[in-house]
Amino acid sequence: MPPFVSSYSSFKIVLTAVFGVLLACGLPGGVQAVHAQDFEVTGTVVSADNQSPLPGVNIREAGTSRGTVTGPDGGFSLAVDSPQDTLTFSFIGYQTKTVPVDGRSEIRVVLETESQELEGVVVTALGIERQQRSVGYATSSIEAQDLVDVTESNPANLLQGNVPGLVLSSNASGPNSSSSINIRGVSSIAGNNDPLFIVDGVPIDNTVIGGAGKFGGRDGGSALSVVSPENISDISVLKGAGAAALYGTRARDGVVLITTKTGRTSAPGEVSVQYSSTVTAKDVISGFSDFQSQYGQGTQGRAPSNQDAALSAGLSSWGAPLGEVDEAPQFDGTVRPYDDVADRQGFYRTGLSQRHSLSINAGFENTSLRLSASHQNTEGVVPNSGYEQTNINLRGQTRLGGLTADASVTYQNELTDNRTFLNDAARNPNYLISFLPNNIPKSALQPGATEEGVEKQFTSDGLPTNPYWAVNELEADDDKDRILGNVNLNYSINDWLSLQGQTGLDWYSLRRTNVDAFGSAFEPGGSMTEDTYRVWESNSKLLATATPSLTDELSLRLDVGGSLRHRQFEQVGVFGRNFSIPDLETISNTANPTRNYDFSEQQIRSFFGSASFTYRNYLFLTLTTRSDWSSTLPEDNNPFVYPSVSGSFVFTDAFDLPDALSYGKVRASWAEIGGDTDPYRTSLTYGIIGQHQGQALETITQLSVPLLDLKPTSTREIELGFETQFFNDRFGVDFTWYRRSTVDQILDVTVSSASGYTARTANSGEIRNTGVELLLTSIPFSTADWTWDSRVNFAANRSQVESLAPGLDVRVGPENRLATANIAQVVGQPANAIYGNTYVRDDQGRIVHGEDGLPLSGEKEVLGTGAPDWTLGFSNTISYQNVSLDFLIDAKWGARSSPEPTPTPTATASTRRRSTPGRPVTSKLAQTAGIRRTALLEKA
């Protein structure tokens, strides 16, 4: 048996022993003796909503295993040991209630609905519900009523502007594009900075397959769209390490907890049906305001003199001022007026989207069911692009004595047509249309193909694709099927001890097809790629919860458990170019197609525990620890253990303070979270690259030298904060300060290619984040008919790269095609800085030119950063009786770049550059505003 498996076997034995001890403690004397039942209690259980009887309510005598359920009329009868015993009443969708018998032979019990129970309650790690006052770290929640009118297919976008410290960025790649979420700054030098997403207690895979690269690439779409917004009950965001420590390595950058709706109805036996339909329209209404409109196509201040000159000039707008030349030949040989006819927005269309959703809820005596389905059909603003999505979800809950079962399954199908390519490379229709010179009408490019059926080229450089050829002839389609499954069992052994077991499955298959049509300028013979991705992930956990009574003033909650995560990734692909028959776009029609295969697998086994102490319901302390065994780390560095401690003090309950202060609490936490890495970074992996004389040619598949003694990363964070409410909760303040450091980062460091590798894996580097978060809540006015609720959230973060590998001060990320600027980590600078070329300047800051009159290139420097200094969200709800108006303002400030020219817009003279206010200058020499100036500057 492998040592790794043996370690886990030992872990299971220890875990079983722990549960055995807890079970023994929960059953005094090991097994309870049967006592005489000499007192009978009868009664009725009704709902607080409408006083209707509640059948199927579970009733248990405290400290024993005896119990019963109410009948169809809500009535019950139960024999108990003593007239002084206590009964516990529980029912799906209602608050659990404990009632002392107090010698009564007949009792009437009223149960409150669950929504009333959850007031002042937040969902924390492992789905544990805790009083807001007891939590020692910052959390943010979005309730169901705030999601009612949202039409987003991507749940991540629901967080926009609603959570302090959360920054959301979306790709402009059409419908269902992916979103990147960053909480409290960048913490990883080389890895993913997105939070962990949990749906009904089970982690789901949020990996985005694809993205922008040096030579293009396309977005893989949102992995979170598998959760329909109509099914979401609430979203909680755990931002700090103290909140997320129990979730382990993937929770280093925070956790987003999504709770979906159940089939609970207002009364047993009731069935409710809900249907909604929305239609939205999107237009391109901005984005071209910075484009100059004074100059046309050409070079050196002159318009093209013939067709070849026009093809050579391409996207260059370094031509003559518009109006100085009457007409000029263009790329197709046609002579057209040399006027401003730019109509970039005219290329796009209005993107219509329709979304329909249907849900059926059914509640019975001990069971609730919810069946929901949604369908969305969206047209992209780019012609011939679109997205179609179908989601079906079934969830059921049932209770049998002390056992509660909750199970759900979701199926999703996504079809994406012509997902837009990214970057400034071929296939992207937005690229050429954005930088098309002002004197070229877009109609001249239509329909994209010549009479011979090949691409109508605008430039002698075949890389910029004719936008109409891209949308009409190229193909970039996705077909994705996904299944989520979740089973959760919870058994109450007695009134203070319970066991929970949960397992979840996330499986999807994605087929991607790319076709470059025969006659494409960048691929004259055409090409085709077909890739199939399969991802399978399972997550299982076992949790024991004990709430023993210590004293009248001091209580304790213990949570002890273990979990297992198993993930497999598989990719099968085939690529071929040069179609034998031009219009037959199949792999078998290409010459010498090549195939590729990729597979990876990883496991994480964990053991965790939490102890929460409560003193007089105003002083709280929570201690946690977690130990992980990761298959991606060497055996000698497993397991890795990390703790956390948090506490809170509700001082308004401890002291007699002025009535104006309704509520006051201070909180603090310290936590550490470990982190692993991708598979196969600690040993060599091998593959086959072909055959020679019938023999396989083997090779080492990785380009980075593995690190045999790879250690886990470590993220440590301290957080301080306070919460206050004034004037009977009419005005509230929630403030947080934090400092977080991530050390021993796992990254690749460049080495000489003479070694046969391009990099080596290293444990090195530190990033530090410091920030503040502020939430202001208020009710400016409230009457019998009118209510105005207002929320303002503010956050500021400062990140800094403290160190990289020894001897390394700059680590450059993936390059763009022109290699002029990159995202890089630079010691002493903010994380993810923009790092690129500069000009040589003199003591007065003027650009220095060489003898040829061209500006001299300087050293690469930090040009700016894409991360905002601060963010602001301002949301308001104004309600009149049953009608409400909601609006949200989301602002980001501080992302900035150097005034040095940016590659494509400046190189093509498409955008405005100014030497003095109000005067556009687009000459390559004049715009530099340096020591030498040409006559063209005087003409500008």
TrEMBL record:
GO terms for cellular component: cell outer membrane. Residues 894-928 are annotated as: Disordered. Residues 895-910 have a biased composition (Low complexity). Residues 132-255 form the TonB-dependent receptor plug domain. PROSITE patterns: TONB_DEPENDENT_REC_3 (PS52016). Keywords: Cell outer membrane, Membrane, Transmembrane, Transmembrane beta strand, Transport. SUPFAM superfamilies: Carboxypeptidase regulatory domain-like, Porins. It is found in: Cell outer membrane. Its main location: membrane. The keyword Membrane applies. It is a multi-pass membrane protein. Belongs to the TonB-dependent receptor family. This is TonB-linked SusC/RagA family outer membrane protein. It comes from Salinibacter ruber.
